[in-house]
User: Fold this.
Amino acid sequence: QVQLMESGGGLVQPGGSLRLSCAASGFPFSRQYMTWVRQAPGKGLEWVSSIYSDGSQTFYADSVKGRFTISRDNNAHTVDLQMNNLKPEDTGVYYCRVGDYWGKGTQVTVSS
Assistant:
């Protein structure tokens, strides 16, 4: 079955960096568009970034453009989100998604 497992979250100071990773299995990874979505405390889901199946195109929410970079390794079946210059408003649970399938998420907290 489809499995998505996020990792790499944690507590970081404003201006710091984190790299999230999503390990995928149970589906043809190299043929799937992958997405990161986040949910801030008390708020709804927010799309963050997506990447084409071959990695040829990437897309970002305006709120993270220029600070976050999405990438994928189709051999390792992973999709990563490099997050730089983190801000307190980036705090939330970050989910990896493919189609209707979601991982359990990883917590990112940006605080001094």
